[in-house]
Amino acid sequence: MPGIRTLDLDLLRCFVTIAETGSFTRAGERLGRTQSTISLQVKRLEDQIGRAVFARTPRSLSLTPEGERLLGPARQLLRLNDTAIAELFEPAMTGRVRLGVPEDFATAHLPAVLAAFAKAHPLVELEVTCDLTLNLLDTFHAGGFDLVLVKREPTQPLEGMRVWREPLVWVARDERAVADLGCVPLVVSPEPCVYRKRATDALDAVGRKWRAAYTSTSLAGARSAVNAGLGITVLPREMVPPYLTAISSDPDLPPLYDTEIALIEAPGLPETAHRLAQHIVAALERGD
After folding, report:
1. Which of 165, 168, 208, 276 is the most interior residue, by most CB within 10 Å?
2. What is the CATH T-level fold of the domain 168-257, as seen in this structure?
3. Model's pTM, two decimal places?
């Protein structure tokens, strides 16, 4: 039929890779192509759809509104293509994938995602390690992981691609837990911890005194301490259990920035690990 347009999957793969890496150069390294070839493919895609997908300056690269709308469907098309190719031409996927994740995110969001991957690829060995974000990054940069999911500040441009974002909230046994206290008792993880720093920086910014009343290396331990009335903590909104309360009425507790989770892939990633990365991104986009 005249007028029907067909999107080129190679051009879409280039577009998605740039969006994920945040750089034409890094996209070229991942795809094994020169920067000039990457630039040409982006131009071909933009000519094909009649719209710009990236806003570029000498110092920044971002998706245009049209690029934002294209990103989700482009990933879906590539996922369908790669799945079909794997089923038709590739042998059963094997190998070991080393994944590092923050404990709280692993507890709340990843079990079903990883279980679905393990069911689809039973010969793949998943080696999952939970730790604090800064420890995960140290191990990753030392070559200890193929993939890491890490917490990061939304306002800071860091490596990796964002795969999850949700509000952070103050959590207590009840709404009045710290209403009459001059010094806020905090239930925190040991340093270094992104949420601990987020809490103390926010309180310092408004001049509210605080103390580390209880330090726990586990999410379960922190929740139990808060439930016992030993202090308040900071959690993503979806991780607040029903027996605890997200404080909303204390004017002396400052608002918190959203939490953001980024996925980072090691250079020269084996295909098996790259497939897991694609699976995680797709599942979290769908909210699985």
Report:
1. 276
2. D-Maltodextrin-Binding Protein; domain 2 (3.40.190)
3. 0.64
